[in-house]
């Protein structure tokens, strides 16, 4: 019997539920199972989750008590909004005098369109004085009589004065109704956007509460004592209790699971993650070791929901080839799955005997230019996966790999139609599909100012080999397919860290206020089960919007990854030199900790100051931080406050845009503390001192300092 503790990740998709078991120490994949998603079962998706868990434990030889971490991702909230399957919301606005006019306008949310022809079911009532208990009860009664199944309370400036919303929520809870107070969903100003975000949260609340209770009870009955976590849309996980309060955080969490897997397993520092399924490719950004997050658009409007910036292209492994005028005109958006046809490359040579190219309309309103093969074995779709296999882009052992001879036989009739050879025809098919992906990739590289020289393309999903290798080849960028790419999403769920984000609008925020926001985020992840000693907090202060944002992440246990292989000095030097685009002989070691080594070189420039690019490489030989021009200083925890004060003073710039402290990062133990989001020197130094707290005075600290232009 294997006695290693395991982490279990379960990804509940629309058709299948995938589950993986990962060794909690080595993070090695131990097993994977796939079961149909149990939408129609009396226990809903909970039944499929437990079935997948049971089969996984049996496959890997583990017992329920071996599960150290269990998390699941679900598309249920997203699907509820897409399908219009939501609860009727009772929105109670609070306010008297001029503010009443603003809250009464919130009744217009009744016009929000969920799906074509279906609007958000909402009833509105108003309370002028929340201290008038009878008026509050009357408002709750009014929305209930109007059919409300859940209540939202909203009041202007409730982020500063929440008492009015709290009073309404308390009255609704007395009636046994699920509730949402707008100030609990976000602490940002903006009555309209804050309330709209709270209303959408409430609309899915009853359904998500029922599912959470069923999943919780089912997992407990299965004998698993580890607390159940749920995937968030920003790449982290949250406790089940937090999901009950803010189910909205699970919306758009599907793509987040995949990029979380790529970030943790593939250790991407800078690049793009392309998750390719049968029909589409989701593209997301990793910049300096962190996923790119922004406020999501829901129901056609921006919200205060922070989610991955994921951009979707209608090209996947099953995308069908389109032809016209003797040439390939496109790939997709229709896929073989939509057309109900098998991939030609997964047929047999006998099936493809006497194959001829014809064109069809996959759907009645589609153009009749989608190429298919009519052959001895029936009708088959010519897909991106067929072309990738024919061109040798799909590695052996990959989920999408097939017999190369069959793939070439599948493309041969198309090549004859185009008047060319198989390799050229296959390349044209892949060009047609990847050109669409490349347009989005190039836009995201520009938007996030990625360093194109070191940005890597990482493919995930079952269709990864149909897109990423060819795109890397034609763009000249480094590219690879993630290990276990077909189950990268459940791996991401299993490896995800507990995450919490706290945002406050604080004009002229001082160091005490910034530290308070940081402490709130840190306490939130610890309360959800994160090990306190391993919590990392990134703080950003936006002087234009006066927004203070703290993002805290932490694991449920402190991981000591006893990896069998660690990169040696030569491997790490080579990784740094490759990233720096220079000869290893010109790279030198600048500093180091037990977990990281800092490398640098010099770039001589005529008529301009020399640059000193820096790379930080971890023990596995992965570049974890890169700086185009930085100063590196080694000190100790005891001396750090004085040393850092001098470094910040020397590197602070002054100009028409105001004071700009340097971008500061600290290497401490196994961590890289990123303090680059703070522009004011004093709060920056206060945050640095908070990172040094409770550490031994003689512990080494490495500071990487970048002057801002």
Salient structural properties:
six-stranded mixed sheet; globular; 709 residues; 29% strand; 33% helix; alpha+beta; 38 strands; 19 helices
Describe this structure in words.
There is one protein chain. With 709 residues, the protein is of the alpha+beta class. The protein is 33% helix and 29% strand. It is built from 19 helices and 38 strands. The strands form eleven sheets. A six-stranded mixed sheet has the order 3-2-1-4-11-12. β29 (588-592) and β30 (596-600) form a beta hairpin. α11 (384-390) packs across α13 (422-447). It starts with 5 loop residues before the first strand and ends with a strand. Mean pLDDT is 91; it is low at 560-565.
Structural class: alpha+beta
Bin the strand percentage: 25-35%
**In terms of per-residue confidence, which ranges show pLDDT below 50 for 5 or more consecutive residues?**
560-565
Gyration radius (Cα, Å) is 27 Å
Number of contiguous helices: 19
Would you count the extended β strands for me?
A: 38
Spatial strand order of the main sheet: 3-2-1-4-11-12
Largest sheet: 6 strands, mixed
Percent of residues in helices comes to 25-40%
N- to C-terminal separation? 59 Å
Return the average pLDDT rounded to an integer.
91
Overall shape: it is globular
Could you write a compact summary of the structure shown?
This protein has 709 residues and is α+β, with helices and mostly antiparallel strands. It contains 19 helices and 38 strands.
SSE layout:
Layout: E1 6-12, E2 16-23, E3 29-36, H1 45-60, E4 67-74, H2 76-83, E5 89-94, H3 98-104, E6 113-115, E7 118-119, E8 122-127, H4 133-145, E9 150-154, H5 163-174, E10 179-181, H6 182-185, H7 191-221, E11 228-231, E12 237-239, H8 240-245, H9 253-265, E13 271-276, E14 281-287, E15 290-291, E16 293-298, E17 301-308, E18 311-313, E19 319-324, E20 327-335, H10 336-339, E21 356-360, E22 370-375, E23 378-381, H11 384-390, H12 404-418, H13 422-447, E24 456-460, H14 468-475, E25 479-481, H15 488-495, E26 498-505, H16 511-527, E27 536-542, E28 547-554, H17 569-580, E29 588-592, E30 596-600, E31 614-618, E32 623-627, E33 631-636, H18 640-651, E34 653-655, E35 658-660, E36 663-668, E37 671-674, H19 681-692, E38 700-706
Parallel strand pairs: 1-4, 4-11, 5-8, 5-9, 9-10, 13-24, 24-25
Antiparallel strand pairs: 1-2, 2-3, 6-7, 11-12, 13-14, 14-15, 14-18, 16-17, 19-20, 21-22, 22-23, 26-28, 27-28, 29-30, 30-31, 31-32, 33-38, 34-35, 36-37, 36-38
Helix pairs in contact: 1-7, 4-5, 9-15, 11-12, 11-13, 12-13, 13-14, 16-19, 18-19
């Amino acid at each position: 019997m294997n006695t290693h503790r395991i982490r279990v990740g379960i990804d509940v998709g629309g058709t299948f539920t995938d589950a993986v078991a990962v060794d909690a120490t080595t993070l090695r994949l131990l097993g994977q199972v796939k079961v149909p998603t149990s939408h129609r079962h009396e226990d809903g998706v909970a039944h499929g989750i437990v079935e997948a868990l049971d089969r996984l434990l049996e496959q890997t030889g583990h017992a329920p008590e071996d599960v150290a971490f269990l998390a699941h991702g679900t598309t249920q909230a997203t699907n509820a909004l897409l399908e219009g399957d939501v609860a009727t919301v009772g929105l109670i606005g609070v306010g008297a005098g001029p503010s009443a006019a603003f809250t009464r306008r919130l009744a217009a949310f009744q016009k929000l369109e969920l799906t074509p022809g279906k609007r958000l079911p909402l009833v509105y009532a108003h309370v002028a004085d929340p201290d008038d208990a009878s008026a509050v009860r009357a408002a709750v009664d009014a929305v209930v009589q109007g059919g409300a199944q859940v209540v939202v309370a909203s009041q202007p400036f409730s982020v500063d004065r929440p008492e009015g919303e709290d009073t309404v929520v308390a009255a609704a809870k007395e009636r046994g109704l699920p509730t949402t107070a707008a100030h609990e969903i976000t602490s940002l100003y903006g009555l309209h956007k804050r309330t709209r975000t709270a209303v959408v949260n409430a609309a899915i609340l009853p359904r998500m509460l029922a599912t959470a209770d069923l999943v919780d009870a089912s997992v407990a009955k299965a004998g698993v004592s580890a607390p159940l976590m749920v995937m968030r849309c920003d790449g982290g996980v949250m406790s089940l209790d937090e999901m009950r309060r803010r189910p909205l955080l699970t919306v758009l969490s599907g793509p987040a699971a995949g990029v979380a897997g790529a970030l943790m397993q593939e250790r991407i520092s800078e690049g793009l993650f392309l998750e390719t399924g049968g029909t589409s490719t989701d593209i997301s950004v990793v910049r300096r070791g962190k996923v790119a997050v922004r406020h999501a658009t829901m129901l056609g409007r921006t919200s205060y929901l922070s989610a991955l910036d994921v951009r979707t292209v209608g090209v996947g492994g099953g995308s069908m080839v389109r032809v016209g005028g003797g040439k390939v005109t496109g790939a997709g958006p229709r896929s073989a799955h939509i057309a109900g046809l098998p991939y030609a490359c997964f047929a047999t040579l006998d099936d493809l005997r006497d194959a001829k190219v014809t064109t069809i309309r996959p759907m009645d309103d589609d153009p009749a230019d989608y190429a298919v093969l009519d052959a001895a074995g029936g009708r088959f779709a010519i897909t991106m996966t067929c072309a990738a296999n024919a061109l040798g882009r799909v590695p052996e052992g990959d989920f999408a790999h097939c017999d190369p001879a069959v793939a070439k036989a599948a493309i041969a009739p198309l090549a004859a139609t185009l008047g060319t050879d198989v390799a050229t025809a296959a390349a044209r098919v892949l060009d047609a599909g990847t050109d669409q992906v490349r347009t989005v990739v190039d836009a995201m590289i520009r938007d996030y100012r990625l360093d194109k020289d070191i940005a890597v393309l990482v493919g995930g999903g079952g269709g990864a080999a149909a897109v990423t290798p060819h795109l890397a080849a034609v763009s000249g960028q480094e590219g690879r397919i993630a290990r276990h790419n077909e189950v990268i999403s459940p791996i991401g769920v299993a490896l995800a860290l507990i995450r919490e984000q706290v945002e406050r609008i604080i004009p002229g925020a001082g160091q005490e206020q910034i530290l308070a926001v940081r402490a709130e985020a840190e306490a939130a992840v610890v309360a959800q089960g994160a090990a306190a000693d391993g919590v990392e907090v990134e703080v950003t202060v936006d002087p234009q919007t006066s927004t203070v944002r703290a993002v805290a992440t932490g694991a449920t246990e402190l991981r000591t990854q006893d990896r069998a292989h660690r990169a040696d000095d030569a491997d790490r030097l080579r990784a740094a030199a490759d990233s720096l685009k220079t000869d290893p002989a010109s790279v030198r070691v600048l500093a180091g900790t037990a977990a990281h080594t800092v490398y640098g070189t010099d770039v001589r420039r005529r008529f301009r100051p020399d640059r000193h690019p820096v790379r930080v490489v971890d023990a596995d030989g992965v570049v974890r931080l890169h700086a185009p021009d930085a100063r590196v200083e080694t000190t100790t925890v005891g001396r750090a406050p004085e040393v850092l004060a001098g470094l910040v003073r020397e590197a602070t710039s002054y100009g028409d845009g105001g004071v700009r402290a340097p971008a500061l990062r600290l290497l401490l133990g196994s961590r890289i503390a990123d303090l680059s989001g703070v522009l004011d020197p004093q709060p920056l130094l206060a945050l640095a001192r908070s990172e040094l707290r409770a550490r031994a005075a003689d512990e080494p600290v490495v500071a990487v300092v970048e002057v801002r232009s």
